[in-house]
Structures are given as structure tokens and as C-alpha cells.
């Protein structure tokens, strides 16, 4: 019984480690992309309020136009990575439940105590 609990705990541990590594792939990039969108939104809104900085508006608008395809592509890749993570996580949970449902084969060391040698020991 202790072996079964050990296997279950070790599988949970491996699952959590894998989840952390997979999440690192997209959470950092999502945060960075959110920052870039906020940056461009800030400059886009500030320009309408402050007409003195027309040059900054023009440059900010041009930079946004240059980065728009890249940011949309990055956003779609992040979404795909998150979807892959969700699918992988679901498959791993299903596999873990299958393994836990499997019957643990009897250990070889427990063995059967019968036969010629066992009789000699008595």
C-alpha cells in the first residue's frame, strides 16, 4: 500500500514540475505582450489629449503599425501554446488516473513459502 502511495505522490510531483515548465513558456510572453499593448495604447490616447507632442504621436503610431503584425502573430502563438498546454495537461491527468486504477502486481520478494527448501528450514 505504501508503494502505491509513493507512486501516486511521485506522479503528482512530476505532473506539477511539468506544469510549471510548460506554464513558463507562455506566461512570461503573455505578460510582455500585455505590457507592449498597454504601452501603445497609452501613447495612442495621450496624443489626442496633448497636441503639442504631435511628433511623438506620429512616431508612436508608425511604431505601432510596424509591430502590429508581429504582435498579432505572437498572440496567436501564445494562444496555441496555451491550448497545447491544456491538452497536454488533460492527457497527463487521464494517464495518471489510468495508472492509479491499475492493479499493482505482487512483489517478487514476497514469494511463496512452499516446496523442498522451505521444508528443510523447519
TrEMBL record:
Stored PANTHER family: OLIGOPHRENIN 1, RHO GTPASE-ACTIVATING PROTEIN GRAF
Signal peptide: none
Gene Ontology CC: cytoplasm
One of the Pfam families matching this protein, by short name: BAR_3
Name of the protein: Uncharacterized protein
GO molecular function: GTPase activator activity
Gene3D superfamilies, sorted: Arfaptin homology (AH) domain/BAR domain
Classification via InterPro entries: AH/BAR_dom_sf, BAR_dom, GRAF_fam
Species of origin: Dendroctonus ponderosae (Mountain pine beetle)
Amino acid at each position: 500500500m505504501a508503494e502505491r502511495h509513493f507512486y501516486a505522490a511521485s506522479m503528482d510531483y512530476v505532473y506539477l514540475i511539468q506544469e510549471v515548465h510548460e506554464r513558463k513558456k507562455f506566461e512570461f510572453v503573455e505578460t510582455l505582450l500585455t505590457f507592449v499593448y498597454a504601452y501603445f495604447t497609452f501613447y495612442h490616447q495621450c496624443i489626442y489629449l496633448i497636441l503639442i507632442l504631435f511628433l511623438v504621436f506620429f512616431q508612436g503610431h508608425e511604431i505601432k503599425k510596424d509591430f502590429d503584425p508581429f504582435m498579432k502573430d505572437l498572440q496567436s502563438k501564445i494562444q496555441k501554446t496555451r491550448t497545447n498546454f491544456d491538452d497536454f495537461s488533460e492527457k497527463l491527468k487521464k494517464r495518471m488516473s489510468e495508472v492509479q486504477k491499475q492493479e499493482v502486481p505482487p512483489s517478487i520478494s514476497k514469494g511463496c513459502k512452499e516446496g523442498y527448501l522451505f521444508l528443510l528450514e523447519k
